[in-house]
Amino acid sequence: MPFDAFPRVLLSEPGGSLAQYPLDPSSSGSQSSVDLIFQPIRKDFKTFPSSFELRLHVSLGPGRLTLIPSVKNTDNNSLSFIFGLRNYLSVSDISEVRVEGLETLDYMDCLLQRERFTEQADANTFDGEVHHVYLSTPPKIAIIDHGKKGTFVLHKESLQDTVLWNPSDKVSKALPDFGMEDYKIMMLVDSTNFEKPMMF
């Protein structure tokens, strides 16, 4: 399966619709959840050669967003895949952001044919295009936005690796869904199992 292939449209179970899976408030009334289901159909088989079901449980509460994915192999053959949750974050200015929790870890630089390096900085900052895959990362990573004077904490389980990406001004000009200055106010922190594919 291609590195960048992932379901861009979530489909419900056959004969159903997402309207049949409304947000489900918890008993406290302060948290809501919904299950989203993706199942490949015939036109998807060029991208996803195996049959499977992807279910994403989304739970939203005060100051917390929880995403719990699960994959079921519905094919007769074994299923090997790389999986990732793409977290696009809104920031005040990318130059005001630092990421803590990835120091001293090995990473692959996707701008240099995935050449492997070891992170030397005490924290990650952005002064140009960045596209790194950090390997065997800890379960908690902190994204500190000095402009917003706030910290976003990413907790993860089972997904061992982390991707950091920001396209910089030169690359963003070539992206059709990016405005000229959009790179300044966003970043991607991806939770993934890039190095060791999952097998079912």
Question: What can you tell me about this protein's structure?
Answer:
The chain has two domains: 1-81, no CATH class; 82-200, Beta-galactosidase, Chain A, domain 5 (Distorted Sandwich). Helix content is 2%, strand content 40%. The protein has one helix and 14 strands. It has one helix spanning 168-172; strands at residues 32-38, 52-61, 64-73, 80-81, 84-90, 97-100, 106-109, 115-118, 130-134, 140-145, 150-155, 161-166, 186-192, 198-199. The strands form four sheets. The chain has a six-stranded antiparallel beta sheet with strand order 5-13-12-9-7-8, with no helix packed on it. Strands 1-2-3 form a three-stranded antiparallel beta sheet, with no helix packed on it. Strand 2 and strand 3 form a beta hairpin. The protein is globular. The two termini are 15 Å apart.
Would you summarize the structure shown here?
With 200 residues, this protein is mainly β. The protein is 2% helix and 40% strand.
Short key terms for the protein model shown above:
200 residues, single chain, three-stranded antiparallel β-sheet, mainly beta, Beta-galactosidase, Chain A, domain 5, six-stranded antiparallel β-sheet, globular, 40% strand, 2 domains, carbohydrate binding, disordered N terminus
- CATH architecture annotation of the largest domain: Distorted Sandwich
Poorly predicted parts? 1-21
**Helix/sheet category:** mainly beta
- Helix and strand string, N-terminal first? EEEEEEEEEEEEHEE
Count of helical regions: 1
Number of domains: 2
CA(first)-CA(last) distance? 15 Å
Helix content: under 10%
Shape: globular
Q: Could you give a short account of the major beta sheet?
A: 6 strands, antiparallel
Radius of gyration, CA atoms, in whole angstroms: 18 Å
CATH class of the largest domain: Mainly Beta
Strand segment count: 14
